[in-house]
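Per reviewer request, we include the raw input and output of the structure prediction for the construct analysed in the revised manuscript.
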Amino acid sequence: MSDGLVFPNPRSCLFDLIDGAAHLGEIVHAFYQEPADELGALVGPFPIAIIYALPGGSEGYLDRVDRMAIDVYAPGERAVDTLESIKASVSGSDIETPSGYIDNIKPDQVPTDIPYQSDTLNKATATFLLTSRPL
């Protein structure tokens, strides 16, 4: 029998913190994949946050650091402003969620407006480092 360590799912923890929370007077809906119609166009209501893992995390003897990205889609500059609000609300230490306990969430790359092919939507992205210990 192998003694493998089991860590909280960082994507689920971020989902718990973001989905349904109000930012800048709007409710943000979180997803693991972009919600799209039959033609592949993003569907709202906006703003929406897409949460996904990035390569580059690390695992030590006592803890693990996962690198996660959050993309926010919203009209105009609300995308980057909403992501700034999300960054402020999720960053910190000793964070308990229904999906697990996170020791620390800190920004790795700050929210940045990213070119996106749409006349009505903008995209902002940021990366975060989530530190956790085994369950």
